[in-house]
């Protein structure tokens, strides 16, 4: 696999993102909207019968993309989109501020960006592409003026887990990229942070 580029999801790339996520919207009609919508709205979208299931989640991501708000980065193998990472200023992910497990200790801390989701088509997994997407997210957030990049990885203790359980990345992956990982003061869930102004 030769990755030619990792690019921001600009409006002209929406068709690529839609094609890559496919009819099920990546993970179970999520369309990378889990952290971007209120729990009630997200759940209602999933409870609709086909073909409406996930439609409003998809519309959330489509609107963000077409409005030029860059909801994340797309990896390309030649002209084929082959991977995704969601990275934006932390305040773009409203679910974080409402989550007992992930609520920011200081919600008013300036310049914090967050990386909340990775998605790779099944045949692209286990080749290091997730790590490359995380590295690209670091560089993108830094270039956009971010001061800190935060992530919410899962600790697999070095073992393997189904992709749908580690869509936020793994502690090992974040540590390898230079992030420090510590427990959330309330939930104990791992929180990864990287100072973007260093180095």
What keywords describe this structure?
single chain, 199 residues, alpha+beta, 7-stranded mixed β-sheet, 7 strands
Notes on the protein architecture:
- With 199 residues, this protein is α+β, with helices and mostly antiparallel strands.
- The chain is built from 7 helices and 7 strands.
- It has helices at residues 14-21, 25-29, 39-47, 55-66, 94-98, 129-143, 171-176, and strands at residues 5-8, 72-77, 80-89, 112-119, 148-151, 180-183, 190-195.
- Strands 1-2-3-4-5-7-6 form a 7-stranded mixed β-sheet, with helices on both faces.
- β2 (72-77) and β3 form a beta hairpin.
- The longest helix has 15 residues, at 129-143.
- The two termini are 29 Å apart.
- The mean pLDDT is 91.
As residue ranges, the low-confidence spans are none
- What oligomeric state is this? single chain
Strands across the major sheet, in which order?
1-2-3-4-5-7-6
Q: β content, as a range? A: 15-25%
| Percent helix | 25-40%
If helices are DSSP runs of H or I spanning 4 or more residues, what is the number of helices?
A: 7
Largest sheet: 7 strands, mixed
- Structure classification: alpha+beta
**Overall mean confidence score, pLDDT:** 91
Shape: globular
Question: How are helices and strands ordered from N to C?
Answer: EHHHHEEHEHEHEE
Number of strands: 7
Rg, alpha carbons:
16 Å
**What is the rounded distance between the termini?**
29 Å
